[in-house]
Specification:
With 1527 residues, the protein is mainly α. It is built from 56 helices and nine strands.
Length: 1527
């Protein structure tokens, strides 16, 4: 099942309901043999007790004797399988009635026939939950009937123990974060005793390890054992940092307290198990990228700008000289005091020695030193930091810093390596992780749903059978019962009529009915909605500072709206009554808001309570009438589940572990990361800062704090801690995100929202029909519809059946259509010319020839060439153009030539297609509008008005020239209406946070700053705005000013921009710092005076980012699912031609058995042939490949000559081994050697050999040798042949390449357009020496860094407040406070949409690959039969158990079973000692392909192959395949 098919199925699934039979039906089912005989469900019949007997029987000594007797009786017979209805820790199935309360927590006899001979008994707890215990003596002492064991069982299963242990664990968690005192030591002793007593209760009740359901057999009890083992040593000795070994199992023990948490953790472990292949590929690919980056960039980040002395007298003043004035170059270059350090940076300025690299100031030189930036941890000098940099690139953390450092050291062209290699590889890995998690969740959902469906079918069958029996008995009961029934019905009707008789109505009842009619009217509802909208608009106008008049207006308006909603509540209470009012959940919410409003009135004027305003929550009342907002709230509410609790517990665990590991290190070694030896903002010395640190890691900002941790503590420990927190936390967030996305409950709500939208649309259509006249309808009836459609694919509606070429393509006919529409011809009859003579014939020939030209492929290719040429000319439109008047004139004339050509093309298309056909196509409308804009721009240029930025619209012409791009745009247009609705919901949610931000931080980000030193005066010198101005006036310090931060919460528009930075940039840290330092309005900021404002940002990340993005993705996928037949069907975002690629790719690389290579007749060749096909030979070559990769990894920049020679000779030895492998294979396989992977191996071998001989030639470019070194890594492609799951993921990604190409091409066009627009609009803004928008290439580099969404605020700040402009005249304001945010936000929104399309395409194709790639084919059956005949020499169709190993080892890769699973296969229980061919084939297909072939198909496939088997079996029907179960 594909991903979109599963999405469709989710909408149709109903919510899980409790299945329960009535007491009469249960009694009938348990006592009537006739019903049982009619019931065709063996799985239920085997679990029912004998008719008339008790269901639940106490476990006695006689029960134990019966179990032993039955065990002896059933020895050697085939046992039934355990029933999933009676699994442990599940409630009783619906076909059992509720047990009496007195038998709860007492031993009962077994109900499952499978366990009746396994010496077990049952115990039922509250909720009829079933628990299974071993019937043998616990610890060889306590029998099942002993009082101590029964008491232990009651204590173990009682809910009080679970709640008591939860309270104990939570109390223990509180003491974990406290300092070590005598009280905490005493409490640790108490906790240890409690955990020991709990474990003893479990051992007494279950036993320790002897039997199946004992203490040690449950993995959850291992936590108890670890807790006890680690508890007592911690009480005796001081464990220091190793105390985390005590903390971790105690926190994890919270999961074992409740059943729901245990199941959730087990499901998560299954997801992690499915991720094993992806994690292996991720580590492997990151290692490859690290090795490649070492080859290209090794040692480049050591280049620094160093102040260089210009005369000899300067040498003697330096510390790098001795008494003889001898200058030491090495010590001078590595002295940090001689490095040029830019302001606002702690690292020296990185430079390079190539033309496009960073340059140093005039008084310094670019020299190579030892240390690299960021404490030396950002480096390509050896494998570990290079791997850390690639992992940093994968997680998109501080990537702008990594790109800037690499570009400054190596030049602009290095961007190509990131764009073409590093970033796509990271996307591939991330998409495969998302796809693997989604696939695991889908499989779990399908498995659970299949089990629920089977249970529902059984329930429905039993219920229908019981009702049919009741109907039969009632029909045959006679006339007496009928008369009694009729009399009882008449009596009931009379009683009902008596009850419904009109009662004397009082004045109160009449008034209540009027109130009810009023509040239920649409007028009242619309009045409330309008009040809510007006209240929202008024709140959105709030800003800081407020004038006195407007402040009074807001206060009066707030009181008025409070009174309005209070009156609304009173009216509803009067109309519905108290009971009727509180039956509606929205009324409860309204009541709470009114109470909070009253609290606001009482607290008004109290200091510190000004921000305590709940009026913003009224906005959520719109969800009652707004389905989209209601769906969003439903998504948020559905997140309250066990998975969220697991995430919270793990976050607490990370906090406690970090606090215990690094608290002392941060306190003692703080001087390593701080010049003033004060703790930085991010540290782990106390609980709250550690919590902030963990949250920051989960937000994705982890690398900078990791550098600090490695400076103050153990490097390996810090890396291990941060990577675990990041990977586990992100994985849990991803699982929670996808679980909410794939939740059937919210998908049902999405369907209801869609139905409401349809009803609203139908209502609107009815209103429109009523307003129309009958005459107008009659006039339009039968007329061909003449309307302009903006369907991007064409003017006709396309379905999955008739999906052909897009309507934007040219018509294939030879005769042109009518020039104008029919109505124009009726109005102007002179247009109807005779095409057979005169002027009409000339006109017809002209149009016919124009059509031939338009349809000509050469003309179409020439138009595309001109479009690309005109778009490429935009690269020269940059800030340097004004210094090249000749180039400016050339571009102006080229622009006029392009405009003239496009005018001629438009006229030609008018002649060929006609005006009607031309203007009923959206793509030609785009060309027409772009041409109009170009003409307007040309006219304005002639008039002296510069409109060069308008030329950027030329790139829009490329959209209509590529079918794949049009298909993607069609997707976006179809999704646009729903996306706009979801965007309105998101903006409304953000408005809540904007209003809260205004009330919390409005006007509080202003501060006093020394502009020269960029330092803040101490809080004792400047307390507020007045003292800042006094300091400015009295001390005559003009450099001191009272300034606001770039991003703040003073009004709603700027609050929206700040929230956008929080959601899409790492610039949120600066906003967080400003909020944490804020005090009061017009007060000087103070360091971390408002540290708990962090919770505002935490709440926004959860609600405003996580849930809104989930909501947006849900709507987007739902829209794609609805219209997927219009853009690819199963293969989304692919044209019809491109859909052939995944099909062909699947056929080429599917799991097909390899063609049989004949064994050579020559004995020497035959010996080599057998050697090459040995599995040991393949394993040996894989080890050599890994050694080849390791050889690249161990290289460092500071390698000695001896080490370099050793590596060189190792490289030669590896080449010789690969050469020997090639010779052996070419001798053994002969012409069969040349398959895909072997050809790759041969090319790698040839390039490696060539690198040995060409490395000393100076006329070859150095990067050629880099390529030869990287070619050695191509051998790792053989790795994909050895892992089936990895190959499936890789091939799924490869099958999505056409869709990725279409989306990527649109992304490239948008990227190019915004790069040109940025160079034209912001080219004069001075942002720095390298990273700015002065030229097109610099603009592309900047947009590359913006694409990673890491730090686009660094480009936005100079645009909003440009310090100076790069002009010859005086500095002018060449930035744009409005255009800058619109430029970056619009680009990032489009980017997120297209990236989302990329992920959807990859996930869909990986699902398709999983569904189709591993399919059973006829070739597999042929290979299996041939291999079977080699083992079954007598051709009987059966083999003994001993031959099973030989059979499985002889099979090829497609059907081969790993050796670790063969032990389970050999130990399977079959009837007799022989294995039948059908049984083995059925089991292998189930294991390898995940499918169960029907027995009829197997019998037909094998029929005729084994005649002896057919004769021996006669006409006997082959039963179901026995349990050849593979692990």
């Amino acid at each position: 099942m594909s991903f979109l098919d599963f999405w469709s199925v989710l909408r149709s699934r109903s919510e899980q309901t409790e299945l329960k039979l009535s007491p009469q039906h249960l009694e009938r089912l348990l006592s009537d043999n006739g019903i049982r005989s009619a019931l065709r469900c063996d799985s239920v019949l085997s679990l029912l007790p004998p008719a008339g007997s008790a269901v639940f029987r106490r476990f006695t000594a006689q029960s134990m004797k019966d179990i032993q007797h039955q065990a002896k009786k059933e020895t050697g017979t085939e046992m039934p399988k355990p029933s999933y209805h009676l699994e442990a820790e599940k409630p009783l199935p619906f076909f059992y009635k509720d047990p009496p309360p007195e038998i709860l927590y007492t031993p009962l006899e077994e109900l499952d026939p499978f366990y009746k001979s396994e010496k077990t008994f049952l115990v039922l707890s509250r909720g009829n939950v079933l628990h299974r215990f071993n019937a043998e003596s616990s610890c060889f002492i306590l029998s099942p009937l002993s009082r101590l064991r029964t008491a232990s069982i009651k204590v173990l299963l009682h809910p009080f123990l679970s709640w008591f242990m939860l309270a104990t664990l939570l109390t223990n968690c509180v003491f974990m974060v406290l300092e070590n005192t005598a009280v905490s030591y005493a409490m640790q002793c108490v906790f240890s005793v409690i955990y020991t007593c709990e474990a003893l209760v479990k051992v007494f009740s279950r036993g320790f390890c002897a039997a199946r359901f004992t203490f040690i057999r449950d993995p959850w009890n291992w936590l108890d054992l670890i807790v006890i083992i680690t508890a007592f040593p911690a009480l005796i000795v001081e464990m220091g940092e190793f105390y985390v070994l005590v903390t971790i199992p105690r926190v994890l023990k919270i999961f074992s307290v409740f059943l729901g948490l245990r199941r959730t953790v087990q499901a998560l472990l299954q997801v992690v198990k499915k991720l094993a292949n992806v994690l292996l590929v991720t580590v492997f690919c990151l290692s490859m990228l690290a090795a490649i980056s070492m080859v290209f960039f090794m040692g480049s980040l050591r280049n620094k700008c160093v102040f260089w002395p210009m005369n000899n007298s300067y040498y003697g003043n330096q510390t790098n000289t001795d008494v003889n004035d001898t200058f030491y170059y090495h010590s001078y270059v590595n002295d940090p005091g001689n490095h040029y350090i830019h302001s606002r940076s702690i690292d020296p300025l990185v430079c390079g020695n190539v033309s496009s690299a960073g340059v140093c100031p005039s008084d310094s030189m670019c020299l190579r030193s030892e240390k690299t930036p960021n404490y030396g941890y950002t480096s390509y000098g050896w494998f570990a930091p290079s791997l850390l940099s690639m992992f940093r690139l994968l997680t998109q953390d501080f990537t702008d810093n990594l790109l800037q450092l690499t570009i400054r050291a190596n030049g602009y062209f290095i961007v190509l390596a990131f764009v073409l290699l590093f970033l796509p590889t990271c996307f591939m890995l991330l998409s495969q992780v998302v796809a693997a998690v989604a696939m695991a969740l889908v499989q779990q959902e399908e498995s659970d749903f299949a089990q629920r469906t089977e249970t529902k079918e059984v329930f429905k069958q039993i219920e229908e059978l019981l009702k049919s029996r009741e109907d039969t008995e009632e029909s045959s009961s006679g006339a007496v019962l009928t008369e009694k029934k009729q009399s009882s019905e008449e009596e009931a009707i009379s009683i009902k009529e008596t009850d419904e008789a009109p009662k004397p109505s009082s004045c109160w009842h009449r008034l209540q009915r009027r109130f009810r009619a009023f509040i239920l009217s649409s007028v009242f509802e619309w009045a409330i909605i309008i009040c809510l909208i007006i209240n929202t608009i008024i709140m959105a106008t709030e800003h800081t500072p407020l004038s006195y008049e407007y402040n009074d207006f807001l206060a009066v308006a707030e009181i008025v709206f409070k009174l309005v909603f209070m009156v609304e509540m009173v009216l509803k209470l009067l109309a519905l009554g108290i009971r009727g009012y509180f039956r509606v959940s929205w009324h409860i919410y309204d009541f709470i808001l009114v109470l909070l409003s009253l609290v606001e009135l009482f607290l008004d004027g109290i200091s510190g309570m000004s921000a305590l305003q709940f009026s913003g929550l009224r906005i959520l009342r719109l969800a009652r009438w707004w389905p989209g907002l209601h769906l969003f709230l439903r998504v948020v509410w559905s997140s309250v589940q066990h998975l969220t609790l697991v995430l919270l517990v793990l976050v607490f665990l990370f906090v406690v572990v970090g606090l215990q590991l690094f608290r002392r290190d941060y306190t003692e070694n703080v001087c390593h990361i701080s010049q003033d030896c004060e703790l930085p903002r991010w540290h782990m010395s106390d609980l709250f800062h550690t919590f902030m640190m963990v949250c920051r890691i989960l937000f994705g900002q982890w690398i900078e704090t990791l550098w600090d941790c490695m400076m103050v503590s153990n490097t390996g420990l810090c890396v291990l801690y941060f990577i675990l927190v990041l990977v586990l936390g992100k994985l849990l967030l991803l699982v929670l995100f996808l679980h909410l996305l794939l939740s059937s409950i919210t998908n049902q709500r999405l369907s209801s929202v869609e139905e409401k939208d349809k009803k609203s649309l139908e209502t609107l259509k009815q209103l429109c029909r009523r307003t129309g006249t009958k005459d107008r309808a009659d006039n339009t009836k039968g007329r061909k519809k003449e309307s302009l459609t903006l369907n991007l694919v064409g003017t006709e509606v396309q379905t999955s059946e008739d999906r052909t070429e897009t309507q934007g393509d040219e018509p294939q006919g030879t005769e042109p259509e009518d020039c104008c529409c029919n109505c124009c011809i009726h109005c102007c009859p002179f247009q109807d010319l005779d095409s057979s003579r005169g002027l009409g014939k000339v006109w017809s020939n002209l149009r016919r020839n124009s059509l031939k030209v338009v349809q000509n492929k050469i003309f179409e290719g020439f138009v595309i060439f001109i479009i690309l040429l005109s778009s490429a000319a935009l690269m020269l439109e940059d800030n340097n153009l004004q210094h090249s008047p000749v180039l400016m004139d050339v571009l102006d004339w080229a622009d006029r030539v392009f405009i003239l050509f496009f005018v001629m093309e438009m006229i030609l298309q008018w002649l060929a297609l006609g005006l009607h056909q031309y203007f009923t196509n959206a793509w030609r409308w785009i060309d027409f509008i772009v041409l109009d804009v170009s003409l307007v721009s040309l006219v304005l240029d002639v008039l002296g008005v510069s409109c060069r930025p308008m030329r950027v619209f030329r790139t829009l012409r490329t959209l209509s020239r590529f079918k794949g791009v049009k298909l993607v745009l069609h997707t976006l247009v179809l999704a646009l209406p729903r996306l706009l609705k979801s965007l309105l919901v998101i903006l409304l949610v953000w408005l809540l946070w904007a209003l809260l931000g205004i009330r919390l931080f409005g006007g509080k980000f202003w501060f006093c700053l020394n502009m020269t030193s960029e330092e803040l005066p101490h809080h004792s010198e400047v307390e507020n705005k007045t003292s800042c101005f006094m300091l400015m006036i009295e001390d005559n310090q003009s450099e001191i000013t009272w300034i606001n931060t770039y991003f703040h919460f003073d009004h709603v528009p700027m609050s929206y921009l700040s929230l956008s930075l929080l959601a899409m940039s790492r610039g949120w840290l600066d906003i967080l710092y400003s909020a944490m330092d804020s005090t009061q309005i017009e007060q000087q900021v103070q360091y971390e005076s408002n540290i708990y404002s962090f919770f505002y940002f935490l709440g926004f990340f959860i609600v405003g980012v996580f849930f809104t993005f989930n909501f947006f993705v849900r709507i987007f996928i739902h829209t794609i699912h609805q219209h997927r037949h219009k853009f690819g069907g199963k293969h989304v975002f692919m044209t019809e031609e491109q859909q052939m690629f995944p099909e062909g790719f699947k056929k080429r690389f599917s799991v097909k058995p390899e063609n049989h290579v004949p064994r050579p007749q020559n004995r020497f060749q035959a010996w080599i042939f057998d050697l090459v096909l040995l599995e040991v030979f393949e394993v040996f070559m894989m080890v050599v490949v890994v050694l080849n990769l390791v050889l690249v990894m161990v290289e460092t920049y500071d390698d000695s000559i001896m080490k370099w020679k050793l590596q060189h000779w190792f490289h030669v030895i590896l080449i010789l081994i690969f050469l020997l492998e090639f010779l052996l294979k070419i001798i053994a396989l002969r012409r069969f050697y040349f398959n895909c992977l072997n050809v790759v191996d041969l090319l790698v071998l040839l390039t490696s050999i060539g690198g040995l001989f060409l490395s000393d030639l100076y006329f070859i470019h150095p990067y050629f040798f880099l390529f030869l070194r990287l070619a050695r890594l191509g051998r790792v492609l053989r790795f994909f042949r050895c892992a089936r799951g990895i190959r499936m993921l890789f091939l799924g990604f490869m099958m999505s390449l056409p869709a990725l190409l279409n989306v990527g091409l649109l992304l490239l066009i948008i990227f190019y357009t915004f790069s040109v627009l940025g160079a034209m609009s912001f080219g004069e803004v001075n942002m720095g020496d390298m990273f700015n928008f002065h030229t097109f290439w610099q603009s592309m580099v900047c947009m590359t860094m913006v694409t990673t969404s890491s730090s686009w605020d660094g480009f936005l700040i100079p645009i909003m407040r440009p310090p100076e402009c790069n002009t010859d005249a005086e500095p002018v304001d060449c930035g744009s406070p409005v255009g800058g945010p619109l430029f970056f936000v619009s680009y990032l929104v489009l980017l997120q949409l297209l990236v989302l399309l990329l992920f959807i395409a990859v996930i869909q194709q990986i699902f398709n690959a999983h569904e189709e790639l591993w399919e059973f084919q006829e070739e597999h059956l042929t290979v299996f039969v041939e291999t079977w005949k080699k083992v079954d020499n007598e051709n009987t169709g059966s083999i003994p158990h001993s031959a099973l190993w030989e059979l499985c080892q002889a099979l090829q890769d497609a059907l081969r079973v790993p050796a670790v699973n063969l032990f389970t296969l050999i130990d399977t229980k079959l009837q007799g000692d022989q294995l039948q061919c059908e049984d083995v084939l059925q089991t292998l297909t189930q294991q390898v392909f995940g499918i169960s072939l029907p027995n009829e198909k197997l019998r037909e496939s094998v029929k005729g192959i084994f005649p002896q088997e057919e004769e021996g079996n006669g006409g006997e029907e082959v039963g179901e395949a026995k349990g050849v179960g593979l692990a």
